Amino acid sequence: MKPVKVGICGLGTVGGGTFNVLQRNAEEIARRAGRGIEVAQIAMRTPNPNCQITGTPITADVFEVASNPEIDIVIELIGGYTIARELVLKAIEHGKHVVTANKALIAVHGNEIFARAREKGVIVAFEAAVAGGIPVIKAIREGLSANRINWVAGIINGTGNFILTEMREKGRTFPDVLAEAQALGYAEADPTFDVEGIDAAHKLTILASIAFGIPLQFDKAYTEGITQLTTADVNYAEALGYRIKHLGVARSTANGIELRVHPTLIPADRLIANVNGVMNAVMVNGDAAGSTLFYGAGAGMEPTASSVIADLVDVVRAMTSDPENRVPHLAFQPDSLSAHPILPIEACESAYYLRIQAKDRPGVLAQVASILSERGINIESIMQKEVEEHDGLVPMILLTHSVLEQRMDDAITALQALQDVVGSVVRIRVEQLN
Ligand code: HSE
Description:
Blueprint: E1 4-9, H1 13-24, H2 26-33, E2 37-43, E3 58-59, H3 62-67, E4 73-76, H4 82-93, E5 97-100, H5 103-120, E6 124-125, H6 136-143, E7 149-155, H7 158-170, H8 174-183, H9 192-195, H10 198-212, E8 222-223, H11 231-239, E9 242-252, E10 257-267, E11 279-286, E12 290-297, H12 301-318, E13 349-359, H13 364-374, E14 379-384, E15 393-400, E16 403-404, H14 405-416, E17 426-430
Parallel strand pairs: 1-2, 1-4, 2-3, 4-5, 5-6, 8-10, 10-17
Antiparallel strand pairs: 7-9, 7-11, 9-10, 11-12, 13-15, 13-16, 13-17, 14-15
Helix pairs in contact: 1-12, 2-12, 4-5, 5-10, 7-8, 13-14
The structure holds L-homoserine.
GO molecular function: homoserine dehydrogenase activity; NADP binding
Active site: 203
Family: Belongs to the homoserine dehydrogenase family.
């Protein structure tokens, strides 16, 4: 059988990895796909020193690849929302299947892209968009298709996890670790996407859609970054038996779906609390399978290429199949997507870690306890530290039981209004993940 011809758009970290793994493992991949996969064109602006390209036509214009009649599958690895969207839509218009690693594109424009792909009977595959080398899209979309999924929780930004790990284990500074993540090719072009949780929210949006069968709704995701985390909170969390991770949580409740990314205390003995460095992990809780955990490299050249090529193999196998009988883009049949709403953060529920800086006076703890009890907030534990020399204040650390965010907002406003409470109350959500 003639090889399938693919065009790679973008020869950066992931594009270079994809090209190299396709060459290195060509035989193994062809044995799996049933046909060879030939890179028939590459669009790139700057040569990638990691790639030895001989004989493959090169262009600087990605749109040439999208309209190249020779090409069956376009691999979009340029990133960003604008040109990538045009490129993917153009490839679809030309009847080409698309493989992309672009989480921002899928999270923001996926509904439109999938609708156009359905009209044209082509596949848009995006395994590499979430959690790098971990085949979690396939696992949820196909492996867990018997389940009513209750929740998904994941460490889905390698850069953020790398920063938190290095800060906790080696006491390194935030900018120092970020610079290393950039040099290693983990970080986004704009690293605020990593540290402010936007990248994780893109991925969580995709996971929530395939887990719950809802349209992609990135604009409704709640996002809080890790830039405000202090070593003090990391250490207090440890003392209480928790680790702080930048977690994406998508939970189905009777009222709607929680879709939130924020720093989170997780019991230190959970496997996911011990996922360190650039590694990612996604926990999925389904009513039949119970909890499953998917772990692996969440970023990097070859791990992400592994997912891109797995998609390529899937597309090659499914190319000749009836489009109606393919795995739906978002796991559920497009006419069966649910309108269950995404909840605003005020309507989400979780337990909380609070750190209150108070003057060392009698009765402060009683006032704090009464503000919480008046709002029905149940305290799980309290830790009061000795007076700090530099400011003469006493840190009080509390863990609460689960409560509606709105109620906690109200309690924090009241706490901050107390005469003996100084500055803002630190609030970090807590997830037991059991
Ligand atoms: N910047 C992303 C991360 C790359 O650090 O996880 C993989 O999506």
